[in-house]
Amino acid sequence: MHNCARYLIFFQYIGTKYSGVVKVPPHQMVKRGVQDHLEEAIQKLRPNNPVSLLVSSRTDTGVHAFSNSAHFDLQRKNNKPPFAEELLVEALNYHLKPEQIRINRAHRVPCDFHARYRAQSRTYVYRIALGVRHRTLLPLTESNLCWNIQDTELDEEAMREAAAVLVGTHDFSSFRAVSSDMSLKNPVKTLDVASVQMGNSFANMYFHRQISFLELTFTSRSFLYKQVRRMTGALVAVGRGLLTVSQLRALLEAKDSLAYPKNLVAPPHGLFLTRVAYRESDLLLQQPTT
């Protein structure tokens, strides 16, 4: 008899039309979450078990992903063998066709594998278009996929100096938004990467004029609620001369979410989850012995 198979999937989505990635309770449902659509697609494979998806990384309404991840268990009816990984990807994408959600790849993983707790790091990239007076002047390929600001230049050196202040192990309380589970979350996080570099428009080669882009990249094992958007907003404020590097350092050292200046938080639509990394050894499925 074939046992229930556990799969790890990596998936992408444009977050504009979804209420974040996790499921939305029916009584709150204005927009559905990405997880709602993924579970609906899995149910269309007619599994023998109720399917519950466990997502590795929560993203807010309007935030996008090139590669989020989740795991679920799937048992086929009539003692059929587990789906081959490539066939599972094709079948799920077939049922996801109306949505801006796609499965990138799938892996059979051990039955004790957990997508959230086995993740070694998560990487986010925040994209900023410079010198754009209004979002309607952006190419369509950038609609709701970047933060367009009117400044033609930001002080990148000051931003890099400020980003270096954030790297390392700190209490990031000043950079988390108030949430219902604040008391349950340890505010001490280790930020491995905080970089500022030039980026490109998705339509770089084809649009009628050049648009300057900045990309802010952050890597950590985990992040606090809205931490990346708040760090981004503070770094842009440094680039605009609204905050000094010393003031950003003082903000970090304040360890107080209420110390964060009002109206600095970067909007969600420029943010992308680009990678959830795992140890290869954790993904290895032990072959049954005969």
Automatic annotation (TrEMBL):
Domain Pseudouridine synthase I TruA alpha/beta span(s) in chain numbering: 11-117, 162-278
GO biological process terms on file: tRNA pseudouridine synthesis
Reaction equations catalysed: uridine(38/39/40) in tRNA = pseudouridine(38/39/40) in tRNA; a uridine in tRNA = a pseudouridine in tRNA
Active site: D60 (nucleophile)
GO molecular function: RNA binding; tRNA pseudouridine(38-40) synthase activity
Keyword Ion transport: no
Pfam assignment, any one: PseudoU_synth_1
Presence of keyword tRNA processing: yes
EC number(s) stated in the UniProt entry for this protein: 5.4.99.12
Binding positions for substrate per the UniProt entry: Y124
InterPro entries: PsdUridine_synth_cat_dom_sf, PsdUridine_synth_TruA, PsdUridine_synth_TruA_a/b_dom, PsdUridine_synth_TruA_C, TruA/RsuA/RluB/E/F_N
SUPFAM superfamilies in the record: Pseudouridine synthase
Organism domain of life: Eukaryota
Keywords carried by this UniProt record: Isomerase, tRNA processing
Record PANTHER family: PSEUDOURIDYLATE SYNTHASE (PTHR11142), TRNA PSEUDOURIDINE SYNTHASE-LIKE 1 (PTHR11142:SF0)
Family: Belongs to the tRNA pseudouridine synthase TruA family.
Name the record gives this protein: tRNA pseudouridine synthase
Biological source species: Oryzias melastigma
Lineage: Eukaryota, Metazoa, Chordata, Craniata, Vertebrata
